[in-house]
Amino acid sequence: MSVHSKLYEGKAKILYTTDDPEVLLADFKDDATAFNAQKRGSILGKGKINCSISTQLFQQLEASGIKTHFIDSPAPHQMRVKAVRIIPLEVVIRNIAAGSLCQQTGLELGTLLKQPLVEFYYKNDQLGDPLLTRDRLLLLELATPEQVDAITHLALEINQFLQEFWSRCGITLVDFKLEFGVDSQGNLLLADEISPDTCRLWNITEADPNRRVMDKDRFRKDLGNVEDAYQEVLQRVLQAVATQN
Hints:
Layout: E1 3-9, E2 13-18, E3 23-28, E4 31-34, E5 39-42, H1 46-63, E6 70-75, E7 78-82, E8 85-86, E9 89-96, H2 100-105, E10 112-122, E11 131-132, H3 134-139, H4 145-168, E12 171-182, E13 188-191, E14 199-203, H5 217-220, H6 226-244
Antiparallel strand pairs: 1-2, 2-3, 3-7, 4-5, 6-7, 8-12, 9-10, 9-12, 10-11, 12-13, 12-14
């Protein structure tokens, strides 16, 4: 596979075209951002760790019947993916109150939600990725009603799978972000990544609200030991997969 030109560079990855128009190469970066890129930094080894975690989780999801853009991982920090048109929505699934949900509703951090909450945010940095109602989403024609229904169903299905998987890792899945895309055949595929960058993960056996954090909140809140937390998540994922197999 020959790599051609840079197609797109985001906060966490660079996408390159290849000799196959249906295949892209994603190069995971060590760059870290928070608060809509107002805070910037670097997490040593993050690219390789997030690529490895995402590879394992995409493979697990594929095996369970969830269609993703994942093809393979030719290098520790690289992933070959199916070319898709990204739907400009960040789909956030919440199981426990944290982050902006607490800030905007007054719910106490750690409140267990009676049922998973699915939220849609406009993937638009200039607007600050605002929270959207379904009617606003449809008004802006960001997705069709059928796609919104399908995404909601898939998000809940993925959430159930990931909750069980992370639990086997000794980790609580608090909330997480997903992105979806449409391939050249019109198939809706899970895209982007699933990693400590996109998931809020708490160590099940740790009660301290700072020490339990195993995700990018360690970077956001200057909690320290960011690289160690990411590496610990990877080791638990690999162990869970090895035990399962």
